[in-house]
Each structure stands twice: as C-alpha cells, then as structure tokens.
Design the sequence.
C-alpha cells in the first residue's frame, strides 16, 4: 500500500488521473442510473398504452359491427333487400370475433363487466329481437315489428350504445391517467438529474481547488524568482520545501536551482552568442529586402488580377452590345498596357468600339477591314504580332526613330468562325508569348459574352415579335402567374385597364391591376370572385364571364385558359373580347321579334276580324265596302312591312340592285307628296324650290322610297298636324333636300342611334305610334348607295329636320355645252343587231338624229365578227334573231366571255319579258318592245356620260349598288 501511495506522490499527472477517473466513475454511474430509470418509465407507459389502445380498437370494432347491424336491419325493414339481411348476420360474426379478441385483451374489472353486458345484448339482439322482427316483417305483420321496437327493442339498443360509450370513455380516461402518471414520474426524474448535475459540479470545483493549492502556489513562487532573474536582481531562493516533494514540482525546483547556478557560468557564452545573433540580424535584413521585392511582385500581380476582374465584370455587367464592346476595348487596353485599340464585330453593321483612336482612323480601319493584314486573321484564325516603325503622324513632337508593336487577335465562335477581331498597339515594348497566351484566353471569354448577347438579342426580338402579334389581336390578352402578378399584356388590355403603357402593367400585382378593372365594370364583386376563383383556386371549368363598362358603353366577355409547362401550371391567360356589337345585335333581335309581332299582328287582326264579320253576317253594301277598304289598307300595310324586311335583307346581303338614271328630284318629291296627302287632313305640305339644278343620277323608285319614308315619318310624328316643308337647295356640288315637320321632336341622346335597324325612341308620346324601326335604316342605305348622306337636327316639342344630300348633276344645255355633247355623241359608235328591218331603220334614224354613228347587222355570227372588228361604244341587241345560227343570248354570252369586248355596254331590245336573265348575263339595260325610240337614245347617252364621269371605266348602272 505504501508503495502505491509513493507511486502516485511522484507524479502530478497520476494524481490528476486518479481524481478525474473517480469523478468520471461517479458521473457515469449516476447518469446510467437516471437513464435506466427514465427508460423504465417510458417502457412501462408504452406497454400500458398499447394494452389500452388494443382494447380501444376492439371496442371500436364491436361498436362498428353493432351499428352496421342496426343500419342493415333498418335498411332491410325499409327496403326489403336481401343483401341487408345477409349483412346483419355477417356483422354478428364480426361482433362475436371482436368480443372474443377483447376478452383476451381484458385486464380490468371494467373490461369483464362490459364483455358480460355486450355478450348478453348480442345474444338478445341477434338471437331474439332480429329473428322475430324479420319473421314478422316477412309475414307482413308490421304491427308486430312496431311492437317489438316499442316494447324494449329500441330501449335495449340505446342502453347498449350508452354502455359502449361509457366503456370507451373509461378507456380514454385510463389512458389519460397513465399519461399523467408518466409525466409525474418524468418530473421526478428530471429533478433528480438536476440534483445530480449540481453534485457533480460541486465535486469538480473541489478537485480544481485542490489542484490549484498543490500546483499553483509553488509555481507562483518560481515565477516571481524568474521575474527577478529577468530584471537582473539579486535572488535568494529557498528550495528546501519544494525540493522535499517527489512530484514534478520538486523536480522543477531542483532544476531551477541548478539553472541559477549555471546562468552565471554561461554569461560569457551568452555574450558570444549575442555577437553571433547580430551577424544573423544582418542576414535577416537581406532576406527582408528580398521579401519586399517579392511583395512588390505580388502587388503587381494583384493589380493585374484586379484588371482581369474588371474586364470580366465589364463583360457580364450589361447586355447592351455597344456598352460591352466599349468595356472590352478599354479593359483589354489596360491589361495589355496598350496605347490604343479597336474591336469590330463581323456582322452586317460592323458594330465596333475604339480606344485612343480618332473617328477618321476608325473609319479607315472599317473601310479596309477585309484587305491587307486583317485577311490573315480570317484565313489562319490565329493571333499574330507585328513590329513597325512609327509613322510621322504618330510621332507627335518626337524626332528620333520609334517603333510600335501591333497585336491582332481573332474572336472565334463555337463553329470556329471569326465573329470579331481585336487590334491593339503598344509603343512601350513587344508582346511576349506568355502575354499572347493570356490574351487568347481572354478572347474566349469575349466570345462567350458575345454569344450571350446574341442569345439575348434573339430572345428580345422573339419577345418583341410576340408582343407585336399580341398587339395586333383585337381582344385584350392578359397573362398572370399563379400569384396573380401581371406578366404579359397587349395594347388592347392596356387601354381596357386605362393605363398609359404596357410597362405600367408588367409585374403589377393582382390588387394593382384588378382594382381598376373591377371599379370600371358594373359586375363588381362578381367579377372579382370570378378572377380569384380562376387565379388562386385553379377553377379551370368556369364559363366565360360577361361584364359591362358603363363609362365606355362596352360589353366585354372574358374567358380564361390555364397555361402549363412540363405538366406544371404556370399561370392563366385571360382574353377580354369586346362583344358590344353582338350584344346590341341580340338586343335588336329581341326588339325585332317584339316589333314584328306587334306590327304584323295588328293589321292581321283587322283583316281577320273584318273578314270574319263579312263571312258570318249579312252586311249592307256600304258597310261591306268600308270593311273591304279597311282590309285593303291593312293588306297594303302588311305588304309595306314585308317589303321593308326584304329591303333590309337585300341590303345586308349586298343583293340590292339600283337602276340609276338621270332623274328630276322635284317630280319624285311632288309625286310622293300627292300620294301621302290622302293619309292626312290635318297637315299642310309646302315645297320650296331654291335651285333650278335638280337632276340627280339615281334609281327613281328607291329615291321615291326614301322621301316616302321621311314624309310618312313627318306625318306620324306630328300627330297634332301642322306644316310639313320640303326645301330643295344647292350646297357646293351637292343637291340637298330638307324634310321639316312641327311635331314631337327627337331627344338628343337618341339621334346617334336613329338610323340603326329596329331602333325606336322610347317615350310615352311615341308608344301609340306604330312602326318597325326599319324605315330610317333603309333610307340611310339607299342614300349611301347614291353616294349621298342623310342627317337630322331636332328640338323637342318643336319638330325635326331630315336633310338628304346627293351629288349634283348638271346636264349640258345649249351653246358650247350642247356642241360638246353633240361631239361626244358623234364620236360614239353604236351597232344595232336587229332582224326586223322596219324597227332597225327606225332605231337607226333615231340614233343618227341624236348624233351617233350607227351600223346595222341582222345575223348573230356576223354581229360578233363586226363587234370584234370595230369595238363600238355600245351595242343594241335583239334576242330573237331571224337567222338561227346564233340567238341574241349567244351573242351576249360571246361578248361577255371575250376580255377585249366585255366592257362594251349592251342594251337589250326585245319583246320577251326576261329582264332578270338578261341582267344576270351582263346586259346593262333592258328595253321591252314596244318603247319610244327616244328612250333608247337617252339610255345610251346616260351610259356614255356615266362612263365619262368614271374615267372611261364603265360600271353597269344596274350593278352600281353592289
């Protein structure tokens, strides 16, 4: 034992190891005990929890089986389906299985009591109640079924369900109690662990204090002595106490004592060493100079790297081609220490940038880029250097001979083609091979940057193309991402959202762009919900949504389509389509149905009513005449309505034809007024003719229809009577006709819609006035076809004025104008194809008297040959020719199929009433025999004048409207 104590006294390390080992043993034993205790608690709780959860699972299975049996029993009694009956007994087996499993897992008195009650109920329910109820139900004894339910059946089920619920609650409470117990035990264990840690820390502090007393005090004394020695003070050190120790401190004290003795002995030796150290110091100063030189080299390298970094940053900091090129040439010149340089792209524009060069020098370089030294770059695709004498223009004020070193560098693309060249000049000295290799590496970086810029420009061009395409689309297109942020819009969408430019909407959040749209529309929250359901909820099946913009008077339909990429939804494309016209058409259709129903039924009711009276009653002759007159008037009214509908249909389909001739507008208006006078006795008609030039080129019947509609409206909409004034006057080169009444007038807001189909002013004064709303629409189309226009001014309660403006035609009358007309007629050549000699002679005499040159021919084939030879200005053609080698129809077809002759006007002169066929085959006019010969002269003259007005480009009169 003594030997062991000596063993530990001789070493501080061994003493420390013993203390630390003891401490670790205590710590490990305590920590292990606490860990085992904690593990035991957890294991015990998990075991009990598993038992309770197992019983809970079986209890739930029992409950499910019984509930399913209850449901199947009710289903069988309600619907008499056999599968319900079979399911009852399957659930009986499931319930019995679950009861057996619960019995194996039972551990408490509550478990046993519940099992006993459950088995009793199962025996009663499946053994007694269900069989009796099924038997009674199958025998049709529903009274017994009800009796079984009322006499304990329902009560027993409810009691079992209560017991089931109570048992499950007890299991839950038992699990909660076990969990609470686990928490309490864990709290105790945590408290014990805290106490254990506190104890361990106390022991550790105690050990530290022991070691400090045993080691720190003697070491402190040694340190004080060492400090005195360092200060060259007299030292008296008592080493008896320290040297009595057998450990390292004792050994250290003995060694220190011996050291003091040897210090003095070796002082002279130290002085010698001092001189040697001075010599070493000189050597270190030399090494320091070398290090300073190395530092300068490193700083130069750092500066070079900084330039390289600036060069790389210049390549990547911008996608603007010109900025990048300017950055390249500037930073390359700095890296090379070149005095000037240039870079040129080998594209069509020769995009370039220069450093230290004049504009003239750059222009000269670009002019001769494919000549001289540069061609070597395109052929060898390798860099090269050149030393040359400085020219006089480069020397400046220097007089001695100087040299400049040029370096030529190609920038190669991925296809190994030269996409740019760099040329730099340096006056200070040549370029080394190492520098050349470095610059080649830099050109590769330049190539990558240029390729990146090219890709960016291509993508920008593609983006701009897509944007231009979107801007040409009439609908408003709007693409938003999954968060509702605006990504792509076109100009129509910008206008719809009332923004100034596309840039305002790019990147705008949902709240920013949706607010403006919702505030404009009358849909409000409904539109907002529609947008949110598609953007944020991904509702892809929503139907298109229609909303109105009251301020713009527009109706917009919006529909949405999701945009996917690689199966992932990227966002939604909204298309806002302006359906205002379609909406108005639908409204007009509704108004049309309503109007037509009213306007047609009213006269039909009168016709049917009076017809029935005449068929069923004996009426006096005067009464019959009155009724027939009424029926006739209503039938005319129906005819007028139907004609209006047909006129509108023909105008919209482009099939309306006009037989335009030179007509006197005054006679047309007077005839219309004479016709309209019979419809009123309270109106006075006045015609004010303020010009003698009243001739227009037009269709007499259609012009009569225009003024009939206008004057009829003037009568209808001045129900109190008054003056209706028709004023005819000139305004410039237009002939104007005003139709003025003193009636109800038209509201200002209704005037823009007045000439729309089916539009009628809606107010109480007009409800009793009938009409389809087509009259003014027909007026506008007819006037438009005559190259005119119709306008209206009105004042409520004072009347309205409709103004029709048509091109004015001045016919030549007497003097020089008459001679000019005669000259035109004399120059005009007409061929008459007619087999009746007497009629041919009459027509020839009429045309010659009118100043035309005339030739006659009887046969069809000869007529075709003569027309091909002489190419007349007009042809008068009979259909039924005496010679049957070719009829008039054959002649007409042959002329219209010949491109050289198709433009010649053809007037058919025939006894056959086949006007439609003739006009369809290309005839320009159709005269039915007999007719006045002067009518033929007038027709030909009108054609020639019309041809002159249209610059010798003849348009058939009957097709001008088309």
Sequence:
């Amino acid at each position: 034992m003594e030997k062991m104590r000596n063993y530990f006294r001789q070493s501080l390390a061994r003493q420390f190891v013993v203390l630390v080992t003891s401490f670790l043993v205590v710590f490990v034993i305590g920590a292990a005990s606490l860990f085992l205790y904690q593990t035991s608690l957890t294991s015990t709780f998990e075991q009990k929890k598993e038992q309770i959860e197992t019983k809970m699972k079986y209890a739930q299975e029992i409950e499910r089986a019984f509930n399913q049996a209850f449901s199947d029993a009710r289903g069988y009694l309600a619907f008499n389906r056999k599968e319900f009956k079979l399911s009852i007994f399957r659930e009986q087996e499931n319930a019995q299985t679950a009861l057996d499993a619960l019995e194996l897992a039972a551990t408490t008195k509550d478990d046993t009591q519940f099992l006993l009650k459950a088995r009793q109920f199962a025996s009663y329910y499946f053994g007694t109640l269900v069989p009796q109820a099924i038997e009674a139900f199958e025998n049709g004894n529903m009274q017994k079924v009800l009796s079984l339910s009322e006499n304990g059946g329902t009560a027993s089920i409810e009691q079992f369900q209560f017991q089931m619920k109570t048992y499950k609650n007890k299991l839950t409470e038992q699990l909660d109690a076990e969990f609470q117990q686990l928490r309490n035990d864990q709290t105790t264990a945590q408290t014990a662990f805290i106490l254990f840690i506190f104890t361990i820390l106390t022991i550790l502090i105690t050990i530290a204090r022991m070691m400090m007393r045993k080691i720190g005090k003697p070491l402190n004394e040694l340190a004080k002595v060492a400090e005195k020695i360092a200060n060259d003070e007299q030292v008296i050190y008592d080493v008896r106490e320290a040297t009595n120790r057998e450990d390292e401190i004792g050994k250290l004290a003995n060694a220190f004592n011996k050291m003091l003795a040897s210090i003095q002995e070796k002082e002279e030796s130290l002085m010698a060493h001092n001189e040697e150290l001075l010599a070493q110091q000189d050597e270190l100063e030399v090494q320091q100079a070398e290090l300073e030189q190395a530092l300068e080299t490193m700083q130069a390298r750092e500066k070079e790297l900084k330039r390289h970094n600036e060069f790389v940053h210049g390549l990547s900091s911008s996608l603007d081609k010109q900025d990048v090129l300017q950055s390249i040439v500037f930073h390359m010149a700095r890296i090379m220490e070149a005095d000037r340089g240039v870079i040129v792209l080998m594209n069509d524009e020769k995009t370039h940038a220069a450093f230290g060069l004049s504009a003239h020098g750059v222009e000269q370089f670009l002019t001769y880029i494919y000549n001289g030294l540069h061609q070597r770059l395109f052929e060898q695709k390798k860099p090269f250097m050149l030393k040359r004498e400085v020219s006089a223009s480069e020397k400046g004020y220097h007089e001695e001979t100087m040299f400049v070193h040029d370096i030529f560098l190609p920038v190669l693309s991925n296809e190994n083609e030269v996409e740019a060249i760099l040329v730099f000049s340096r006056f200070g000295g040549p370029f080394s091979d190492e520098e050349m290799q470095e610059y080649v590496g830099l050109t590769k970086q330049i190539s990558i940057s240029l390729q990146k810029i090219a890709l960016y420009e291509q993508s920008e061009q593609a983006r701009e193309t897509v944007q231009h395409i979107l801007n040409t689309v009439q609908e408003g297109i709007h693409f938003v991402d999954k968060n509702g942020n605006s990504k792509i819009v076109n100009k129509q969408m910008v206008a719809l959202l009332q923004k100034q430019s596309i840039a305002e909407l790019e990147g705008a959040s949902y709240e920013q762009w949706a607010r403006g749209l919702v505030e404009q529309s009358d849909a409000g929250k409904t539109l907002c919900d529609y947008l949110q359901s598609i953007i944020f909820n991904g509702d892809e099946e929503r139907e298109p949504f229609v909303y109105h913009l009251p301020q713009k008077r527009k109706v917009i339909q919006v529909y949405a389509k999701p945009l996917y990429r690689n199966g992932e939804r990227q966002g939604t494309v909204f298309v806002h389509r302006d359906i205002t016209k379609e909406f108005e058409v639908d409204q007009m259709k509704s108004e049309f149905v309503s109007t037509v129903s009213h306007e047609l039924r009213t006269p039909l009711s009168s016709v049917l009513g009076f017809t029935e009276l005449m068929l069923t009653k004996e009426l006096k002759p005067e009464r019959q005449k009155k009724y027939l007159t009424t029926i006739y008037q209503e039938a005319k009214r129906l005819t007028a309505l139907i004609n209006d509908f047909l006129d509108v249909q023909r105008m919209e389909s482009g099939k309306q034809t006009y037989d335009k001739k030179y007509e006197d507008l005054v006679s047309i208006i007077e005839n219309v007024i004479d016709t309209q006078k019979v419809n009123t006795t309270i109106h006075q008609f006045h015609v004010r003719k303020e010009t003698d030039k009243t001739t227009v080129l037009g269709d007499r019947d259609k012009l009569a229809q225009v003024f009939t509609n206008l004057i009829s409206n003037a009568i209808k909409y001045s129900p109190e009577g008054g003056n209706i004034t028709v004023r005819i006057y000139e305004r410039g080169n237009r002939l104007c006709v005003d139709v003025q009444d003193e009636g109800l007038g038209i509201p200002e807001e209704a005037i823009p819609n007045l000439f729309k189909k089916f539009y009628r002013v809606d107010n109480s004064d007009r409800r009793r006035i009938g009409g389809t709303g087509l009259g003014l629409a027909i007026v506008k189309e007819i006037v438009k076809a005559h190259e005119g226009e119709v306008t209206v001014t009105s004042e409520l309660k004072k009347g309205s004025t409709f103004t029709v403006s048509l091109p004015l035609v001045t016919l030549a009358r007497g003097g020089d104008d008459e001679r000019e007309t005669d000259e035109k007629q004399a120059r005009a050549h007409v061929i008459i194809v007619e087999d009746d000699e007497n009629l041919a002679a009459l027509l020839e005499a009429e045309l010659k008297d009118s100043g035309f040159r005339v030739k006659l021919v009887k046969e069809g084939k000869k007529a075709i040959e003569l027309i091909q030879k002489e190419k007349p200005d007009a042809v008068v053609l009979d259909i039924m020719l005496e010679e049957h080698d070719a009829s008039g129809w054959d002649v007409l077809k042959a002329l219209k199929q010949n491109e050289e002759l198709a433009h010649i006007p053809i007037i058919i002169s025939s006894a056959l009433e086949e006007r439609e066929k003739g006009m369809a085959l290309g005839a320009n006019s159709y005269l039915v025999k007999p007719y006045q010969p002067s009518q033929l002269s007038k027709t030909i003259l009108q054609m020639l004048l019309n041809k002159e007005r249209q610059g010798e480009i003849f348009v058939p009169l009957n097709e001008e409207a088309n």
In short: Confidence is low (pLDDT under 50) at residues 764-768, 811-826, 952-962.
